[in-house]
Design goal:
The chain is an alpha/beta fold. It has helices spanning about 30-45, 65-70, 75-80, 90, 110-115, 140-150, 150-160, 165-170, 185-200, 200-215, 220-235, 235-250; strands at about 5-10, 15-20, 50-55, 60, 95-100, 105, 120, 125-130, 165, 180. Strands 1-2-3-5-7-10 form a six-stranded mixed beta sheet, with helices on both faces. A four-stranded mixed beta sheet has the order 4-6-8-9. The relative contact order is 0.12. InterPro entries: ClpP/crotonase-like_dom_sf, Enoyl-CoA_hyd/isom_CS, Enoyl-CoA_hydra/iso, Enoyl-CoA_hydra_C.
């Protein structure tokens, strides 16, 4: 697939997906959604790739769903066409995905960032769910994920008033893992992705699966799930390699087995 709304490149074991509709503040239209999901499917299928980074421009990670494309949608088109469901691909990724956010991450843009495994923000980042100002509400997980990130009070205020949250507040509230100077954003995100991609891929995938399980189940069931995966790790060559390397005082060479 030739991409027109994103830039896609690989750097070693890491894929970098750059949302690229500069005239529309990276608004998320159907073509962009198709291209991002195609790129992520490629990442998932390529054994050489271990992680990806999704980013936008200095001005906007993404200013939300494309309002001009969405405005005339009717209920039957939205329902039968299962509007928004293609985005589920991001949350279903088994390999880690990092969002590197500068500028506006609004509406679907904020939701896209939250579908990723963690968010690294530039000082310029602004997060918000302003859908209420358009006569709708978040539709790609915003009411659910934002609440889990920042708690009910802040999520409710943002969803009901459309108030934006700047980077420092987003870090204080747990929405982003850390804030970095704007000119270091991509470098920091790629470095984190490279670090992850150098670890054992099956172990990374299990760790991600286990953390995500905490959203879906009780503490007791989550701990049981974690324990089963932890036991399973002792059936991998990479566990032997990792622990042998520690004992031998050398760097482990993981083989993804
Ligand atoms: N959709 C379509 N076009 C957009 C969007 C958008 N979301 N955001 C900006 N643009 C366009 C503008 O129309 C403008 O185009 P033009 O030059 O042709 O008039 C261009 O981008 C530049 O925008 P501005 O002139 O407005 O730039 P400013 O710097 O003045 O303002 C803002 C930047 C604050 C980001 C402003 O553009 C804005 O408020 N945008 C809309 C933000 C918004 O309401 N987002 C929520 C959209 S609804 C949504 O996301 C529902 C989620 C459903 C799930 C989606 C699946 C992921």
């Amino acid at each position: 697939m030739a991409y027109e709304t994103i830039l896609y490149e690989t750097r070693g074991k890491v894929a970098l997906i750059t949302l690229n509709r500069p005239k529309a503040m990276n608004a998320l239209n159907a073509q962009l959604i198709a291209e991002v999901t195609d790129a992520l499917t490629h990442v998932e299928q390529d054994p050489k790739l271990g992680a990806s980074v999704i980013t936008g421009s200095d001005k906007a990670f993404a200013a939300g769903a494309d309002i001009k494309e969405m405005a005339s949608l009717d209920f039957v088109q939205a329902y039968v066409g299962d509007f928004i469901s293609p985005w589920d691909r991001v949350g279903q990724m088994r390999k880690p995905v990092i969002a590197a956010v500068a500028g506006y991450a609004l509406g679907g843009g904020c939701e896209l960032a939250m579908m990723c495994d963690f968010i690294i923000a530039a000082e310029s980042a602004k997060f918000g769910q302003p859908e209420i100002t358009l006569g709708v509400m978040p539709g790609a997980g915003g009411t659910q994920r934002l609440t889990r990130f920042v708690g009910k009070s802040k999520a409710m205020e943002m969803v009901l008033t459309g108030r934006l949250m700047k980077a420092d507040e987003a870090e204080r509230s747990g929405l982003v893992s850390r804030v970095v100077p704007s000119d270091e954003l991509i470098g920091e995100a790629l470095a984190a992705a490279e670090k992850i991609a150098d670890f054992s891929q099956p172990i990374v995938m299990m760790a991600k699966e286990s953390v995500n399980r905490s959203y879906e189940t009780t503490l007791a069931e989550g701990v049981r799930f974690e324990r089963r995966l932890f036991h399973a790790m002792f059936g991998t060559e990479d566990q032997k390699e990792g622990m042998d390397a520690f004992v031998d005082k050398r760097t482990p060479q993981f083989k993804n087995r």
